[in-house]
What does this fold into?
Amino acid sequence: MISRRLSTLLLLGLVSSAWAAPLGAAQVISVGDGDTLTVMDAGRRVTVRLACIDAPETAQRPWGMEARSALQALTPVGSTVILRGSKKDRYGRTLAEVIRGGSNVNLALVRDGRAFVYRQYLSGCERNAYLGAEGQAEKTRRGVWSVPGGVTRPWEWRKSGSNSSARRSGETSSTRPGAGRYRCKEIGSWDRAQELLRQGHRYLDGDGDGEACESLK
It folds into this structure.
């Protein structure tokens, strides 16, 4: 006969998890952005980076702030969560799937179009579940997928801003004058404009709403 505790773990999908980390309840004390929160765990303050997903950066308006709001709604300050995972990233944050009320928060963010599957760091999570959730979000054009092909991936966004001088000026090597700048009227189609935006041509999004060359619609 399966014990009540084991039944609960099976329901949450924790027994088969590749993370195989000890389970413990933690209390949410703050939400940093769309994939980072801070909890109090056994009297220790722990910064948690949600594993296997990557949410838009807060500077990627409005997508980053929408991702943060979604995480705040799923894990309100004061709520109790279970962390599944104990690995550390290079910044010392705990990498974990966050479970609240029997639901996988990481997976919910992907399903709702608030985050992308972080394929490069998907080890430890249920790959098919995450990719399936992302496929459904794209099919229904939720959140980051409301733009055909999805908005600029956050890892690409960070890479394009890796040069400090480019960050200060708001430009990257691909967006400076004389380095292949495009004008909306010359691009030809709205879809092509969104593709260029994802490639780093952020100047095409003059109002910062995550959409390039609205005039082409």
